[in-house]
Design a protein that fits this description.
Elements (H helix, E strand, L loop, with lengths): L2 H11 L3 H4 L9 H22 L7 H32 L4 H23 L6 H24 L1 H8 L5 H5 L8 H19 L2 H28 L5 H23 L5 H29 L2 H8 L16 H27 L2 H25 L5 H22 L3 H37 L1
Helix pairs in contact: 3-4, 3-6, 4-5, 5-6, 7-12, 9-10, 9-12, 10-11, 11-12, 13-17, 14-15, 14-17, 15-16, 16-17
Length: about 425
């Protein structure tokens, strides 16, 4: 099957983000890639609506599809504006091309929405395919050319404001590593701004701090059998060599201030590429967490992986939910042996009750937040509760499958939600303070 035909087949059959994630190119710029994922998820949500009824041409479903499309248009417009602002800030090429394609996509989506309103689209399935094709083709061509990080990083290292640079720093959702990344980025930026005599002193300190950080990463990779461990350690060695080169340049009289500054700038460039591309591949795209979720024995062993929001009641609830998951997992194993399946459903119901209470608390706190953030956040809460409801209504054979996967599945959902949606709603501002 040819590449284009295969891509089209994937888009036709896709139901979740996992189905198409390898189809969409990553730029390496966190906000842009986050937006791309969210746009795809909006489109894929059509599947949920279509699967909710045998007859999806009901008034309720057509209204849900219309509302979803309107939300999609609003988010697409906000995303395109963000992209154009990044292009202008970094003074990179393709601004006019991006604006032209953005206008074209929005115009076509609105026309498609108008056709849907008038009943001209015979199939909502075709609607999903059309939207996905526009978005994926734009991302994989124009966006890939515009934002590919190995190119944009040249403009990023020229920025004189460290806070602006850190806006392009990609999170890998392991709190202590993200914190170390941010602190070391500050250190390396200071070196790029320093005179030779000061730079050499800062480089000596950086060398020790980098060793400590790399050790933390390598211990984590080794502990959970990350398949990228060996190649990643090789990259760490390369950076140590770069630091040594920068030290020698700063100590050598034959190297002038301008040459030394350029070498130090290459340090910052390497560092940003390493975080945004290599660390992301190693710690986010590699499924090492599956091993962690399966092997971890207690709630306490997971707490280091949860990002803090800075709001005590929310952070406490996040930990408490995980404690309940482990308690539930232990009880279910015992109930499975006794074949007391109805009691398993009761326990899942209590878990659902706690999650619902927590979500209500969060939503009360979110009342003063941006409406777009609040709407998307609440939607994710409903999706998690729906999944738990599905479990509670499961037949006996599904309960058997549930027991073996409960801990792993719940931890995946919860930590992904906490470190992703909760972080962007609450924690990002907390960490800036």
């Amino acid at each position: 099957m040819r590449d284009k035909d295969f891509q089209k087949w994937i888009m036709q059959t896709s139901k979740t983000w996992e189905d198409i994630r390898n189809l969409i190119s990553q730029t390496g710029i966190g906000q842009v890639d986050h937006d791309h994922k969210k746009l795809a998820k909006y489109i894929l949500e059509l599947n949920t609506i279509l699967a909710s009824s045998n007859d999806y041409y009901t008034y309720k479903n057509t209204q849900r599809i219309e509302n979803l499309l309107n939300q999609f248009v609003l988010y697409a417009e906000a995303h395109f504006k963000r992209e154009e602002e990044i292009i202008e800030e970094l003074k990179i090429d393709f601004l006019e091309r991006q604006k032209r394609e953005h206008r074209y996509i929005i115009q076509n989506i609105k026309e498609l929405l108008g056709s849907y309103d008038k009943g001209k689209i015979s199939s909502a399935f075709q609607l999903k395919i059309d939207l996905l094709e526009w978005v994926v083709n734009h991302i994989n061509s124009t966006d890939k050319e515009t934002f590919v990080f190995r190119n944009t990083v040249n403009a990023i290292v020229e920025i004189k404001d460290i806070n602006k640079i850190k806006e392009y720093l990609r999170r890998i959702h392991i709190p202590f590593i993200d914190k170390e990344h941010e602190g070391l980025t500050n250190r390396i930026f200071e070196i790029t701004q320093a005179k030779k005599d000061i730079a050499v002193k800062k480089l000596r300190i950086l060398e020790k701090d980098i060793d400590s950080h790399f050790l933390h990463e390598e211990e984590l990779m080794r502990k959970y059998n990350n398949p990228k461990e060996e190649s990643h350690i090789g990259l760490h060695k390369n950076f140590r060599t770069l630091i040594e080169t920068a030290k020698i340049a700063a100590e050598t009289q034959e190297v002038d201030e301008e040459e030394c500054a350029e070498i130090n700038k290459q340090l910052l460039k390497w560092w940003l590429i390493h975080i945004n591309i290599e660390d992301y591949k190693t710690f986010v795209e590699t499924p090492w967490l599956e091993t962690f979720y399966e092997e971890t024995k207690s709630a306490e062993e997971t707490f280091w992986l949860i990002s803090k929001t800075g709001i005590d009641i929310i952070d406490s609830d996040h930990r408490k939910f995980i404690e309940i998951v482990f308690e539930l997992n232990t009880k279910i194993e015992d109930l499975m042996i006794k074949k007391e399946y109805s009691k398993i459903k009761e326990l899942v119901g209590k878990l659902r009750e706690y999650a619902s209470q927590h979500f209500n608390n969060e939503e009360k706190i979110m009342n003063n937040l941006d409406k777009e953030i609040t709407s998307d956040h609440i939607k994710e809460h409903k999706q998690i509760l729906f999944k738990i409801d599905t479990w509670q209504e499961s037949e006996t054979n599904q309960i058997l499958n549930l027991s073996s996967n409960l801990k792993k599945t719940l931890l995946e959902w919860w930590i992904s939600h906490t470190n992703g949606t909760d972080y962007y709603s609450f924690g990002a501002d907390y960490e800036k303070e």
